[in-house]
Amino acid sequence: MILNKHVCLFTAALALQIGALQAQQNPVKLDLNSFEGNKGSWSEVGKVWADPTVPNELQAADGSGVFANLPTKKKPGADLISIEKFGDVDLSLEFMVAPNSNSGVYLQGNYEIQILDSWTSTASKPGDNGGIYQRWDESKPDGQKGYQGYAPRQNASKAPGVWQKLDVSFQAAKFNSNGEKIENARFLYVALNGVTIHENLEVFGPTRGSLTGEDVAEGPLRIQGDHGAVAFRNVVITPYDAASPKISNVSYETFQGSFNNLEDLSGKTAKAKGTVASLNEIPASVSGVNLTKIDANLNVAETGEYFITLQVPGGLSGLAVGNETVSDLSNRGVRIKKQLNAGDNPIHIIASKNRNWSVDGFNLYISGPGLRNTELLVSQAGANQATDPILVDASETPVLRSFRDFPDFKRLSHVVSVASEEKVNYAYDMETGTLIQVWRGEFLDATPMWNSRGNGVSVPQGALINLSTPAINAVNADYQTSEEFRTKGYQLKNGSEDMVFNYLLSGNAVTDEIKVLESGKGISRTVSGIGNGFYKVADGVEIQKVAKGYYLLPETGVYLQYDEGTYGAPVTNSSNDESGIFLPAKGNIVYNLLF
Questions:
Q1: Under 8 Å CB-to-CB from 454, ≥6 apart: which residues?
Q2: Residue 104 forms beta bridges with which residues?
């Protein structure tokens, strides 16, 4: 097995990870009434869906909570532009794109994140789903007009007609008092369907089709509606417009020695002490192991609830705010939630470098009302000492056995993960004969499996779908399962593009053949020798027929393609506290899953 080791630079990543946990007390939920520019193609509905074989068309049902762009010849699509303007923001939304359709989300009306039906794409470009669209110069020759676009790291898209999730953290361009730009806009991160596809990207100016053609401090959220059918729901913007906090009146005491608890300080005299204007001016005047106590004023612009995080790399941390005192030390860092008043608030910090290999200094972050997670101090060692990830090269290792963590279930110890050239991947639990996961995109992160002592767990890299909780899938007419199951291994046919899993069920030989579809739209599965009854294909309680032979399973976001004329319609059943989608079985079962 060949594993490729990639170096990832995450010096700012810890701030982003902490930021995902930060206080969000000022989110703004947008609905259709939050926008102007609707020329009749946009309407509020309760539900939307698509037939994956019909291009550029969404169907809708009455209700509320979704705003859908359903253009017609009489009502051609138009862009929506939010009434409110924004600067630094986090944006979260869900979208559904019709087959072959196209849209986009413009931060400040100027910087487009592409929305596109990129189903089956294996080589991502700036114009693909989730890409930061190119800037444009009409004066350049054809083929050179577009420049400075950013392709997503991988195609984390889902099938058209399925809800997809977009999360964005955006930092607006900055200007001085004379209105001169002093800092470019930046996408701190963009995540599509839970996969980070951009991180810390600087944009040097507006992308093609921008509203203003130049950078601005504040601008509207713009949603493209003139390129096809698309729908949105749960659109939430969290503005970050508060002034940065300040630390002042810093006094410190540093004690020589290794201190694992506060009782060890009793009777000790500080080796160094003094007052400085800021945290980064505290001198490293005591070499070797030591403990530093710091008292200071923390000034915030707005009264409200804040999160404050302290980390001492390789050492122990203590943190208190206001009239409280530090009571103990933690080796995992400290994170507190505290109501702060506008203006100065006392803060008390303890950083214990209790091991010779511990680094000097500490990391201190704050977030709160109108305030994105902000560094108050980061030690010389940096904010994160992450291990370089160990990524499995699917071209060299298309099949890997490992442990796997599955939500709300015990750790699985006999999982086979399979990759393909189409970047359609799946995981199979050998102990139960269950197809547990499918995903599109890159293959596996084996860092937890191989780093240091390792725990044997591999992690899918792409847009993961937890398809079915491990269980024996074949049941009788009363949905009762046989407890007589014994795996007999698997065989590879045509590389990894065709896998046959074998097991015994109640003494009968069962073959479970899984192929990746040539179209790259999903997988085909044929299970033979299972007897009569029903066969579970996915978790869930809802089935939506979208066309003849096509069913959408909304809870997992996959399409079931199935010959109901031969076997009968799929059904739902809940038993043993588990709900599932079942197909009638007549000794065998044949179906496709599209995702």
A1: 448
A2: 114
> Is residue 476 within 8 Å of residue 499, measured between CB atoms?
no
**How many CA atoms, within 13 angstroms, populate the side-chain half-sphere of residue 222?**
23
Q: Work out the angle at residue 44's Cα, subtended by the Cα atoms of residues 97 and 109, and round it to the nearest 5 degrees.
A: 60
Going by C-alpha positions, the residue among 129, 86, 76, 103 that lies closest to residue 441 is: 129
CB count, 10 Å around CB of 144? 9
Distances (CA, A) of 151 to 109, 114, 199, 439, 577: 20, 10, 12, 20, 43
Rounded Cα distance between 470 and 435, Å, is 8
d(C-alpha 310, C-alpha 367), whole Å: 12
- The tally of CA atoms less than 13 A away on the side-chain side of residue 9 is 4
430 near 460, Cβ under 8 Å?
A: no
In angstroms, the CA 279 to CA 281 distance is 5
Q: How is residue 590 written in tokens?
A: 């044949």
N-term to C-term CA, the chain: 28
CA dihedral over 287, 288, 290, 292, signed as positive or negative: positive
User: What amino acid occupies position 522?
Assistant: G
Bridge partners for 491 per DSSP:
500
Per the DSSP assignment, residues forming a β-bridge with 169 are 90, 189
pTM attached to this predicted model: 0.87
pLDDT digits (tens, 9 = 90+) for 169-217: 999 999 999 999 999 999 999 999 999 999 999 999 999 999 999 999 9
- Cβ atoms of residues 172 and 218 within 8 Å: yes
Paired tokens of 229: 């059918």
Mean pLDDT of the chain: 92
Task: Return phi, psi of residue 317, to 5°.
Answer: -125, 145
Residue 421 near residue 361 (C-beta atoms within 8 A): no
pLDDT digits (tens, 9 = 90+) for 489-531: 999 987 667 999 999 998 899 999 999 999 999 999 999 999 9
pLDDT score of 384 more than 90: no
Residue 345, SS3 per DSSP: strand
Q: What is the dihedral of CA 369, 375, 377, 381, to 10 degrees?
A: 150
Using CA atoms of 456, 462, 468, 474 in order, give the dihedral in degrees to the nearest 10. Answer: -90
Residue with the two structure tokens 């069962």:
510
DSSP 564: H
- In 80-212, where do the E strands start and end? 80-86, 89-97, 102-107, 111-116, 135-136, 146-147, 164-171, 174-175, 181-183, 185-192, 195-203
8 Å CB contact between 542 and 47: no
For residue 340, the Cα-to-chain-centroid distance in whole angstroms is: 31
In the 8-state DSSP scheme, what is residue 421?
T
DSSP 13: H
Q: What is the DSSP pairing of strand 230-239 with strand 195-203?
A: unpaired
Residue 439 CA to chain centroid, in angstroms? 14
Q: What are the tokens at 409?
A: 């279930």
